[in-house]
Specification:
Alpha-Beta Plaits, 5 strands, binds iron/sulfur cluster
């Protein structure tokens, strides 16, 4: 089972909550918005990325199951 992360990056407000929740896969870029390091993730990466999905205040992170 693999998973794909979708981020509606246009709407990212740069709060950094996803990076705090999941530094393994989320980082701030020079434009002040966050981005996942990997869009395709495995089951072992799910927990942290689900955390990022949950804490995003504008709910623009979505994890889709393939
Ligand atoms: S939590 Fe959401 S709004 Fe905040 S930096 Fe991450 S993607 Fe952007």
């Amino acid at each position: 089972m693999s998973y794909t992360i979708k981020q509606d990056r246009e709407k990212c407000m740069g709060c950094g909550a996803c990076v705090v929740a999941c530094p393994e896969n989320w980082e701030m870029k020079s434009d002040g918005k966050a981005r996942p390091k990997k869009l395709k993730i495995e089951k072992k990466d799910l927990e942290g990325n689900r955390e990022a999905e949950a804490v995003c205040p504008v709910q623009i992170i979505h994890i889709l199951q393939k």
